[in-house]
Amino acid sequence: MKREIIITSDGSSTIHLPDWNEQYHSKHGAIQEAKHVFIKSGLDEIKLKNISILEIGFGTGLNAFITFLEIQNNSRKIKYTGVEAFPVSVEEVKKLNYVSELNAINFQKEFDLMHASKWEEKILISENFTLQKQQKKFEEINDKNTFDLIYFDAFGARVQPELWTEAIFELMFRAIKKNGILVTYSAKGSVRRAMQKVGFIVERLPGPPGKREMLRAIKE
Fold first, then answer.
1. What CATH number does residue 23 fall under?
2. pTM, entire model
3. Which tens digits make up the pLDDT trace of 49-103?
4. What domain range includes position 95?
5. What total of structural domains would you count in the chain?
6. Cα 97 to Cα 12: distance, rounded to the nearest angstrom
7. Per residue in 133-147, pLDDT tens?
8. Distances 76 to 32, 169, 192, 198 between C-alpha atoms, Å
9. How far apart are the C-alpha atoms of 11 and 29, rounded to whole Å?
10. Which residues, other chains included, contact 193 with Cβ-Cβ below 8 Å and sequence gap of 6+?
11. What CA–CA distances, in Å, run from 39 to 71, 104, 121, 194?
12. Cα 121 versus chain centre, distance
């Protein structure tokens, strides 16, 4: 499938799949979307000092890198697990402009390490951020009561509806701890109902630029 790097409305890059008319991040702003959906609506709601995060769709590493940057000036520690069935290529990573657009030149080494690190191994990116990338399909996730926060950032239900089913969210419900939070950019009714059916308490929130709403789910 053809893939190309494009610049989104906030100046940050993403990967575009023309055959699907789908992007890894919002064309209205990759960085803006990541900060709004996953940091403001997710990470900022977790008040724990030690946080375990699961990302569904590691992709470009943007969500992981922004999360890393968010905790550099506080005492929180994060264990980050990123699941990805089809890793982004080294050539594509080199064309992404996240380090410069986030004014994070001092952390270029850490961004590079996130992508260069071996899959399945736990890597210490910094004293307060540990990363483990897992190359597998989402339906192969079998963790139980492990994560405080889930970033659900799969390709949209329009192109990959099988990733937004009740069966997948049952796996998410098992993987997340009591009082844990799952956030996603999606606001589809079918997605909300699938989450609710497996036991999540779901709320609609204002979406990032270019999107009216998003979803946040809690395991009570």
1. 3.40.50.150
2. 0.97
3. 999 999 999 999 999 999 999 999 888 999 999 999 999 999 999 999 999 999 9
4. 4-218
5. 1
6. 6
7. 999 999 999 999 999
8. 23, 28, 31, 30
9. 7
10. none
11. 11, 17, 25, 23
12. 19
